[in-house]
Fold Cof-like hydrolase.
Amino acid sequence: MALMIKHVFLDIDGTLIKTDGRLTAQTIKTIRQANFSTTLVSARAPFEMQAMIQALGLTGPQIGFNGGIIFRQGVSEPLAQFPISADSRQQLVEYLQTSFPTVSQSYYTATSWLTTQIDAGIKYEQQVTHQQPTVVTRTALNQQLTIFKVMLIIFDADQMATIKTQLQELQLTDISIKQSGDWYLEITSAQAQKSTGITRIQTMNQLQVNELAAFGDGENDMPMFQAVGVPIAMGNANDFVKQHARYVTRTNDEDGVAYGIARYLANC
């Protein structure tokens, strides 16, 4: 019996795009020709997703900041948003700027990437996303009313573990602290969950769980996998992620999304 998939959710980094950040012509063609709706689900900010949304011809709701914002391209007001609370934002800024001034820190609003200094981590992220940050003072950072994500780029594994532990010891219960890959530590509202965004879109479109599929490569994609009927792991995912998928496609550098759609969802 053919699967009746009506909506597909795609992680971006390590999934939709290649390791060098490119979106391939084959992937674009496959998604544009698919007979289901597509939503990108990413830790990225909406403005960092814009080029991909346009290239893929997507017009429906998209999910940024790991579920911190649900938006439509070209529509100013988000469908839903969950920024970091004012109290937690202020504590985080003061703590990070005071305790870890040399650690690469990025702060994201819905429309801006902010930092207090250009360092190795910021330069690395510029190469990955092809975006340019705005350098601001700590005072200006504290005056930002809406911060959706704080991102630390830490190239030392021991330092990563230390900072993660110390942030958890702050006991800010309304935030989520997650490591993404080897070098990224991302802080969002605890309400910002990929699965929450998927459930909202499912409800908006009156879809059943078995009509949803998702592609992902990381452990932070597990909530997304649990929210859909057909979870598909990338070939570059670790064994834990693969064990929680119905199918395993090729790697992101081998057009794994395009292959997975053709191989597992073509009859939808």
Q: What stands out?
A: The chain has a mean pLDDT of 93. Residues 86-99 form the longest helix (14 residues). The domain at 7-81+192-264 is CATH 3.40.50.1000 (Rossmann fold).
